[in-house]
Design a protein that fits this description.
alpha/beta, Rossmann fold, nucleotide-binding, globular, P-loop_NTPase
């Protein structure tokens, strides 16, 4: 009898580049794996960039050259008694099969596998990969081009992929990213109403704009935010309200 528990397949996905897909994949994977006790794996299928795989190499170098972070990493891995989560490169067209093989061969089944997928549905096998996700999270900003691209992408998922029935998708969740706390733009209200009219799901959590999302930790830094080896600093999470997002994220996926 197969006693392995169900592993959730999750992707931060959008047709628009530069909205934070890889960043949120890293932040959530590191929070769940290093701080919350879940077992996580990541498949980097964003060919040819493979940005997460490259990030892990940079993170390893940075931690080894920063005495504060080296001690922090040593304490962390001693306490949690498990390795860093793997980041596995794979082409999008066969990434689902590779992930299932990984689960079967793992001594401990991962609770979540995050997929960093290409940013266009025209990429080889991308629609099939997206259809194999259980939950999709799509960052949006109050920008006309971002919104138009995102709404077309999200409606494609709901009206074509999900209605065909040949899919594992349970939820598709839009969320506001890069929200300027000083700005009270009517665009949020207008687009919020449009999202509701289209019967799409918009998360309550809003991620505040922060330079931390666009900058990896520096060689002399003492606080980590975006890293594949350490969880984001809790104080920095509160500043941009990532802590509230994580709570809502976990409620949605029912982990």
């Amino acid at each position: 009898m197969d006693t392995k528990k169900k592993t959730l397949f999750i992707a931060f996905s959008s047709q628009k580049g530069g909205v934070g897909k890889s960043t949120f994949t890293t932040l959530l994977a590191s929070t769940l794996h290093y701080r919350m006790g879940y077992n996580v794996a990541v498949f980097d299928a964003d060919f040819p960039q493979y940005s997460l795989s490259k990030m892990k190499s940079r993170d390893l170098t940075m931690v080894m050259e920063n005495e504060t972070l080296k001690k922090q990493a040593y304490r962390q891995f001693t306490v949690i008694n498990k390795k860093a989560y793997p980041i596995i490169q794979h082409k999008a067209d066969t990434v689902l099969e590779a992930a299932k093989d990984f689960i079967q061969s793992s001594a401990v089944s991962p609770d979540v596998i995050f997929f960093d997928l290409p940013g266009t549905v025209n990429s080889s096998g991308i629609l099939n990969a997206i259809a194999g996700m259980h939950h999709i999270f799509t960052p949006i900003t109050a920008d006309r081009l971002v919104m138009e691209s995102t709404l077309v992408f999200t409606q494609l998922l709901q009206d074509v992929v999900m209605k065909k029935g040949e899919t594992s998708i349970e939820t598709v969740n839009l969320f506001w990213n890069q929200v300027d706390g000083r700005e009270n733009t009517p665009l949020y209200i207008i687009y919020g109403q449009l999202i509701k009219q289209l019967d799409l799901s918009l998360m309550d959590s809003r991620i505040k704009n922060s330079t931390r999302f666009r900058k990896e930790s520096e060689i002399d830094s003492k606080n980590i935010f975006r890293s594949t080896l350490l969880p984001p600093d809790e104080r920095l999470m509160k500043v941009c309200q990532l802590d509230l997002f994580v709570k809502e994220f976990l409620k949605i996926i029912q982990l």
